[in-house]
Write a structure and sequence with these properties.
globular, mainly beta, 7 strands, about 230 residues, seven-stranded antiparallel beta sheet
């Protein structure tokens, strides 16, 4: 027997104008602080936002390779389309990014190559979007000899920023795959509905939980109909 629990008001006792924010259903959010030990740390943690309360503090050793990404290995970017500032795709800054200024339509196939001097091992890819709607079919490839091999295919869909499909309006999309080492990684974008643009392309040797934002219901389907197969993880 499978039992699924959804955090939804149900249009009855838990929703409506008579329910104050302090009485409403909640979701868990959080902040992260990284420190280098051994130390004793005394710090007051800020509440995430109004009407939230602190419920737990978790401390644990950082996993191996935590914080490492291809951006720290002096990557070179080669793209088939022109960006306003391509280096912002790999600068580690999630608050600013790059947008394609080349003409884009649903028949455009764009490639973004990321080169490093030595072989880099990746286990995960996280695409951080700009705050603008974008939908694209994405392939992550690696160069092997004179050819490219596809490591992962997925759909990047952040076309609906309404709050009824998730409280993180432009949540990043994360995918995981078997460790692969290469000097050149390639993103292939096709069937785009808008000018391609990302705040950050994070290729990392650290594994991540695939689609973790969707799995914690921070971002749902577009439109938000819970189809039978879509929420079975």
């Amino acid at each position: 027997m499978d039992i699924g629990l959804f955090n939804s008001p149900g249009w009855s006792q838990s929703g409506g104008p008579s329910i104050q924010p302090s009485q409403s259903m909640r979701y868990l959010s959080g902040n992260e602080i990284k420190v280098k030990g051994p130390i004793q740390l005394f710090q007051k943690l800020a509440v995430v936002k109004a009407d939230f309360q602190n419920v737990a503090v978790l401390a644990f050793p950082a996993p191996a390779n935590e914080g490492d990404a291809i951006a720290a290995h002096t990557p070179k970017i080669i793209s088939s389309i022109t960006f306003d500032d391509a280096q912002k795709l790999l600068d580690g800054n999630l608050s600013a990014g790059a947008t394609a200024i080349s003409p884009i339509n649903d028949k455009t196939i764009a490639t973004i190559d990321i080169d490093v001097a030595g072989a880099f091992t990746a286990r995960s890819l996280v695409l951080y979007t700009l705050e603008k709607p974008l939908r694209a079919d994405v392939e992550l490839q690696v160069e092997e000899g004179n050819n490219y091999r596809t490591v992962k295919k997925f759909v990047f869909d952040r076309t609906n920023p309404e709050k009824n499909v998730g409280y993180i309006l432009y949540a990043p999309i994360a995918v995981s795959f078997t460790a692969i080492s290469a000097k050149r990684f390639r993103l292939v974008l096709s069937h785009m509905n808008n000018a391609a643009g990302f705040a950050e392309i994070k290729l990392s040797p650290s594994p991540v939980v695939e689609r973790y934002q969707e799995k914690q219901l921070a971002k749902l389907l577009h439109p938000p109909f819970p189809l039978w197969a879509e929420y079975q993880w």
